């Protein structure tokens, strides 16, 4: 497996990966109005808009996961179902943390869907701590959608000492 910057040629595969992974992990946790807006084409559009900030994990058969860093936020982190439990997510989160450090970010944060216990356990195992809940303004084709989420933070300065 390698991690590299995403390219335009990756968009369709990454959009499908994101759509499928989101359905597995979020569809039952969010309001129906948001679920309706999370279409395959909406994921592709969001990836295309964020392409300069997307890093992709590539296995022998193509993309198996990705992350998006937006300023001091780990904005997205998704792994294909077939690659879960293989260490891909840990490699991707470490890659994102290195990017934060290169960009001078001392404390990074992420939003996690309330009830996504699998993701919460993973973040905590990687040293992220839940700091409470927050209103996250999810991007949709119809504007922002306010959604209560768990907020996680990680003090990255500890990693460079």
Structural features, described:
The protein is built from 6 helices and 7 strands, in the order E-H-H-H-E-E-E-H-E-H-E-E-H. It has 161 residues and is α+β, with helices and mostly antiparallel strands. A 4-stranded antiparallel beta sheet has the order 1-2-3-4, with helices on both faces. A 3-stranded antiparallel beta sheet has the order 5-7-6. Strand 2 and strand 3 (62-70) form a beta hairpin. The longest helix is centred in the N-terminal third of the chain and has 15 residues, at 11-25. It is globular. The model has no long low-confidence stretch (mean pLDDT 95).
Topology:
Blueprint: E1 2-5, H1 11-25, H2 32-37, H3 40-50, E2 54-59, E3 62-70, E4 73-79, H4 88-102, E5 107-113, H5 117-125, E6 129-140, E7 143-155, H6 157-160
Antiparallel strand pairs: 1-2, 2-3, 3-4, 5-7, 6-7
Helix pairs in contact: 1-3
Q: Looking at this structure, what is the CATH superfamily?
A: Gcn5-related N-acetyltransferase (GNAT)
Average pLDDT across residues? 95
Query: Which secondary-structure class do the elements indicate?
Result: alpha+beta
Number of strands: 7
Write the CATH architecture name. 3-Layer(aba) Sandwich
Kindly provide the radius of gyration, computed on alpha-carbon positions and rounded to a whole number of angstroms. 15 Å
Helix content: 25-40%
Mind describing the biggest β-sheet? Answer: 4 strands, antiparallel
């Amino acid at each position: 497996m390698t991690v590299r910057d995403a390219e335009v040629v990756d968009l369709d595969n990454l959009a499908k990966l994101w759509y499928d992974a989101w359905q597995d992990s979020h569809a039952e946790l969010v309001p129906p109005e948001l679920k309706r807006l999370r279409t395959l084409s909406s994921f592709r559009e969001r990836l295309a808009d964020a392409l300069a900030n997307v890093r992709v994990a590539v296995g022998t058969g193509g993309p198996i996961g990705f992350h998006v860093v937006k300023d001091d936020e780990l904005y997205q982190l998704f792994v294909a179902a077939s690659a879960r439990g293989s260490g891909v997510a840990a490699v991707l989160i470490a890659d994102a943390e290195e990017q934060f450090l290169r960009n001078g970010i001392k404390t990074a944060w992420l939003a996690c869907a309330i009830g996504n216990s699998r993701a919460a356990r993973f973040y905590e195992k990687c040293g992220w701590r839940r700091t409470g809940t927050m209103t996250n303004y999810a991007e949709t084709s119809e504007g922002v959608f306010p959604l209560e989420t768990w907020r996680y933070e990680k003090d990255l300065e500890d990693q460079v000492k």
